[in-house]
Amino acid sequence: MAFGGLLALRGVDIAVEEHQVVGLLGPNGSGKTTLFNILSGLLRPTAGEVWFAGCRVTNLAPWRLSGLGIGRTFQIARPFAHSTVFDNVLVGITFRSRHHYRRVLDRRREAERLLAMVGLAPKASARANELSLGERKRLELAMALSTRPTVLLLDELASGLSPKGREEVIRFYGRLKERGLTIFAIEHSFRVLAHVADRLVVLDQGTIVAEGRPAQVLGSPRVMQAYLGEDE
Amino acid sequence: MSLNTLAQALVSGALLGCFYTLMALAFSMILGVTRALNLSHGDLIILGGYLGYWLWSGSGLHPLFLVPVAGAALLPLALLWHWLFHRLPEPRELSSLVLTFGLSLLLQNIMLALWRGEYRLIASESLTGSLALAGLRLNQGRLVVAAAALAVVGALYLGLTRTRWGRAIRATSLDREAAALLGINVDEATRTTFLLAFCLSGVAGVLFATLHYLYPAGGIELTLLAIVLTIWAGVGRLRSVLVAGILLGVVEALTVAWSGPRWRELVVSLMLLASLLARSGGLARGWSH
Amino acid sequence: MGRRGWIGAGLVAAALLVLPPLTGFHPYYLYLVSTALLFGTVATSWNLLAYAGQISFGHAAFFGLGGYGAALASLGGLSPWVAIALGGAVGAVGAAGISLASARLRGAYLALATLAYAEIWRGIAHNWTAVSGGGAGLIGIPPLPTLAWLPVDFTRGRAGSYYLSLAFLVVVIAVFGGILRSRVGLAFAAVREEEERASLLGVRALPWKVLAFALSGLFSGLAGGLYVHMVRVVEPDLVFNRYFSILPLVMATFGGLHTLLGPAMAALGLYLVSELLLHPYVPAFHQLPYALALIAVVLYLPGGLAGLLPGKRSGAA
Ligand SMILES: Nc1ncnc2c1ncn2[C@@H]1O[C@H](COP(=O)(O)OP(=O)(O)O)[C@@H](O)[C@H]1O
Ligand SMILES: [Mg+2]
Q1: Handedness of CA C262, C263, C265, C271 (dihedral sign)
Q2: Which fold has domain A1-69+149-232?
């Protein structure tokens, strides 16, 4: 993937197995979010292919990929800022192409369930731009889940949270895994990664520099080097 | 169309294009420095034209003498517009459109009140008549206007490249935040830009009034022309604006030669729509370089 | 909107309903208020489009297309009722057309494209003399027929068009209100606030944008169609006048973007103040209220503009 003269991703070949949690890490600017933008259809790669469940899905529009079962969160939350929290979650429930509810009541019930699950039920009628950082992260997760995806792309869910918030994120990962979701997660926190990931991939300057089981990867000198100067 | 008509159209179009360059520069300078699209641009030019006409019919002076007067007369408005633009919420491109669409209506009404709906022209005898050159007949008025426009554009070019305030304006236009970090007084540069741009508009107005009949609603066409030129040339590139201006003048002259003057306005709007669709947000590209 | 708002709106509606007999079916006042109601209709339709994040600077195009469509149909022998409905359809098609053509433009660039679009139609109406009558336009458009099953005073002359314009305003407000409560409104808001995010949640933006344009064009076209049957002529500079692009925008931003009744109230207020209070005394400056309203929005109600404006961020985050 190139932006003008900048090669943001090169020769990245990653397979995410069903029902697995794969962690993606790497220093800032290494191309992690760019990879997610390609996987979710927001960017068209200048070269390379994306496959999903046996089908080539390169260059499909975001709404098509969403229909196939890909959901994502954003590192910097991008809610519908002037809409209520409730409506933010309702959009995906209403317009997803699979598991469609005919009745408004059913859609609203699912929205309530989702908000309760992420702990935002008391904020349902607040506007999204009134939320705190932690609440925005919860909303991101609820929005990503609102289309009932089978694969979730989570972009730095735990970043910027307090240690307590981080523990909660770890519990969330556990619950999502129990539901059988396939998860591809960008995280910086070694603690979170060590707890939740089945496999890790490390990016640096747009290429994969390490790959394998968490214990292996987190201990490798190459990873430490990539992260040199960064905390955790 | 004979070869001679063609050549005639090319030359008179190119002359008109020099005027278009001058006219569009005010628009693109303000866009560059403030990211605001000024839809009242053409109305300001028409206002300058009316002021010139009023002075000319009162004094009988040669129109070229009235050029600086009309330029100076618009300066108070520059400060008012600057004050208003300063308060525009983000995104500036859109909110400025909303504000200036209203200001354009206001200016039209003021002109309608002051000069009623009548068509006016600075029909100075010194500008009628034509020169014959290599078999072409050159309208003397257009020659004078083109020469005056080129002189003003040249002076502006020197000012922008050789002086301290000129460099401040160009730096602010290139990247406002970086300019501020470098210690450039961007607020002052912005104010200077408004003053310069409105001065140019007044000048353009008087020149325009010697070429075309003025009427209070005539500004929109000039605004659309300025936007087309800015899309073609990008923001802040004076020489590209000159090339684009001459090109536009030629396109217009050819249209008129081929199908008569009725289609001119329609062609301008079509060119604007086509340019917007072709570059989808092309104006924005000008800000980044 | 609170209960007080609804009570106020109900009172205004009741007053508008009984106004014609109260003025003794005074033709001038009825004409004036009908025009204000038509502006209210166009302003509300503009607001409906803005709700979907699409800012138009060219509603004169839809108004004028409706006007010409209805005028041509009426002059061609169709009943004015059918002609006005056709005008609405022409407005809707014209709006859907520019929406499709400019699918890739956003924000200020879309606004400029719609501005050019209105100017293009004005130019076409000026030049396509065989159909449009050129600059002189078309005359001899019949008035609305009276309805035999209603008291004759209520459908005759200006009263008939008064009640029809009131009906248009009520219908466009009802449609907008319905949209706000439905999945259509949910999609419009999503497309307006974050088009890319909406797409990731299964909302394909283009059809919703086209729908918003078509609905907005429909009501503006209906208003244009009725207008030419009120003034009985149609000219390019009359119905494709920029006035019909600027005023709805001013009224909607001043009245409150995205609010159900604000634009209509602002339209009635601003238009009537301008025509009743200013026009008789300072005719030259009777459009001052619009300019002042706009400057007030920019200076004192920054939320008034910022609330609506989409695309506060560009590119993928
Ligand atoms: N839309 C874009 N245009 C140009 N460059 C971009 C764009 N998006 C990202 N980049 C660049 O690509 C590189 C990778 O960015 P990103 O994927 O956001 O990194 P990460 O998420 O790993 O921190 C960075 O150098 C960034 O500046
Ligand atoms: Mg990132």
Answers
A1: positive
A2: Rossmann fold (3.40.50)
ipTM of the complex: 0.90
Nearest-neighbour CA in chain A from C206: distance (Å): 12
Task: Sort out which chain C residues have CB atoms less than 8 A from A139's CB and list them.
Answer: none
**CA–CA gap between residue B143 and residue C272 (Å, rounded):** 50
Q: How many residues in total does chain B contain?
A: 289
**Helical (H) or strand (E) element with B132:** strand B130-133
Q: Using CB atoms, pick whichever of B95, B265, B281 lies closest to residue C109.
A: B281
CATH (domain of B78): 1.10.3470
Q: What is the pLDDT of residues C150-197, one digit of tens each?
A: 777 777 778 889 999 999 999 999 999 999 999 999 999 999 999 999
Range of the domain at C120: 23-245
Span of A4-8, B284-288, C114-118, C218-222 with lowest mean pLDDT: B284-288
Low-confidence ranges of chain A (pLDDT < 70): 226-232
Cβ within 8 Å, pair C201-A67: no
Rounded to an integer, what distance in angstroms lies between the CA atom of residue C128 and that of residue B266? Answer: 11
- C187 and A95 within 8 Å at the Cβ level: the answer is yes
Q: Using the beta-carbon criterion (under 8 Å), do A83 and C193 form an inter-chain contact?
A: yes
**Which residue in C has a C-alpha nearest to residue B275's C-alpha?**
C113
**With an 8 Å Cβ cutoff, are A91 and C190 in contact?**
yes
Higher-pLDDT residue of B178, B235: B178
Domain membership of residue B181 (yes or no) is yes
Closest ligand by atom to A156 CA: 2
- The residue of chain C with its CA nearest to that of B35 is C108
User: Are B91 and C311 an interchain contact pair (Cβ–Cβ within 8 Å)?
Assistant: yes
Q: Which residues of C touch A136 (CB under 8 A)?
A: none
| Ligand 1 and A33: CB distance under 6 A | yes
- A34 CB near ligand 1 (under 6 Å): yes
The answer to whether residue C291 is domain-embedded is no
Residue of B nearest to C295 (CA): B99
Distance CA A32, CA A205 (A): 10
Number of domains in chain B: 1
Give yes or no for residue A32 CB within 6 A of ligand 1: yes
Q: How far is A221 from chain C (nearest CA, A)?
A: 31
Q: Give me the mean pLDDT over the C291-305 stretch.
A: 73
For chain B, positions 154-173, list CB contacts with chain C under 8 A. none
Q: Which atom in ligand 1 lies closest to the alpha carbon of residue A34? A: 17
Q: What is the mean pLDDT of residues B91-98?
A: 82
Chains touching chain C, criterion 3+ CB pairs below 8 Å: A, B
B226-272 pLDDT, tens per residue? 999 988 887 777 888 888 899 999 988 888 888 777 788 888 899 88
The answer to whether the CB of A31 is under 6 A from ligand 1 is yes
- Please name every residue paired with A155 in a beta bridge, in sequence order, or none if there are none: A186
Evaluate whether residue B284 is within a structural domain: no
- The answer to whether residues C51 and C258 touch, using CB atoms and an 8 Å cutoff, is yes
N-term to C-term CA, chain A: 28
How many domains are contained in chain C?
A: 1
Residue written as tokens 């968490």?
A214
Domain with CATH 3.40.50.300 in chain A: 1-69+149-232
pLDDT at C148 over 60: yes
Mean pLDDT is lowest, of A108-122, C31-45, C64-78, C299-313, for C299-313
Contact C312 B90 (CB under 8 A): yes
